[in-house]
Amino acid sequence: MASMVLYNYFRSSTSFRVRAALHIKGLDFEYKPINLLKGEQHSPEYRKLNPLGGLPTLVHNGKVMPDSAAILEYLEEIAPAPSLFPADPYLKARIRQVCEIVNSSMHPYGNLKITQYLGETLGFTQEQKDQWVQKWVTQGLEALEKTLPEFSGTYCFGDKITMADLYVYPQVITCQRFHVDLSKYPTVMKIYENCHKNEFFQKAHFSRQIDTPEELRAKN
Ligand SMILES: N[C@@H](CCC(=O)N[C@@H](CS)C(=O)NCC(=O)O)C(=O)O
């Protein structure tokens, strides 16, 4: 049995971040699906691992780690090569800034518990939910588009995958699900297209996981 167990869900963008890091670093892991739509994140057993009922959670040699940012920093410490950061402290700080734009100013607005509350408690239609997500994530997209041109090459920071790409790429997929107009963000979209071709991102992609439903599975 793998010493690493990842509780995750095929479509979760925060799960994607960790799957991609594990593939990039060549770390083997057992995939434990938690079906968010069936509410499995609220089960008492899962809540013992992750008090906010969020995905992902990593268990390594019996030690429990909730929260993608904490897991990614841990993986970087225990498997430093290949690194997800350049050596330069300034670039490291700017990469963390980009991660933070996605983590704090984009991801929460489209999170399931938020959109479920909008629908079930406030009576929002799907179109109103889309408008809500569009309004808030647009601020993040604008910040990314102002930040990334100075640093980007093939990917967010130069021509090597960094931590920033692990956050930006799956967030663009979430934006697409909520019909956000992405045509105004050419740098973000260039990076998205390049990440999409990367073998590790393809392996971690939502369409290729063991819990991906048949109709969403990649054909190749
Ligand atoms: N900041 C947390 C967020 C975790 C989170 O909320 N993940 C989403 C999936 S992308 C989730 O599990 N949502 C469950 C829900 O909303 O009920 C992390 O990065 O791990």
TrEMBL record:
Taxonomic placement: Bacteria, Pseudomonadati, Bdellovibrionota, Bdellovibrionia, Bdellovibrionales
Enzyme's top EC category:
isomerase
Q: Which CDD domains match?
A: GST_C_Zeta, GST_N_Zeta
Q: Look up the signal peptide feature and give its range.
A: none
Task: Give the gene that encodes this protein.
Answer: maiA
PANTHER family in UniProt: MALEYLACETOACETATE ISOMERASE
**Keyword Isomerase tagged:** yes
Q: Which Pfam families match?
A: GST_C_3, GST_N_3
Q: Output one GO MF annotation.
A: maleylacetoacetate isomerase activity
Where does this protein come from, organism-wise? Answer: Bdellovibrio svalbardensis
- Which ranges carry the GST N-terminal domain? 2-83
Q: Which residues form the GST C-terminal domain?
A: 88-214
Q: What is this protein identified as?
A: Maleylacetoacetate isomerase
Keyword set, alphabetical order = Isomerase
**SUPFAM superfamilies per the record?**
GST C-terminal domain-like, Thioredoxin-like
Family per similarity comment: Belongs to the GST superfamily. Zeta family.
Q: Does the entry feature the keyword Isomerase, yes or no?
A: yes
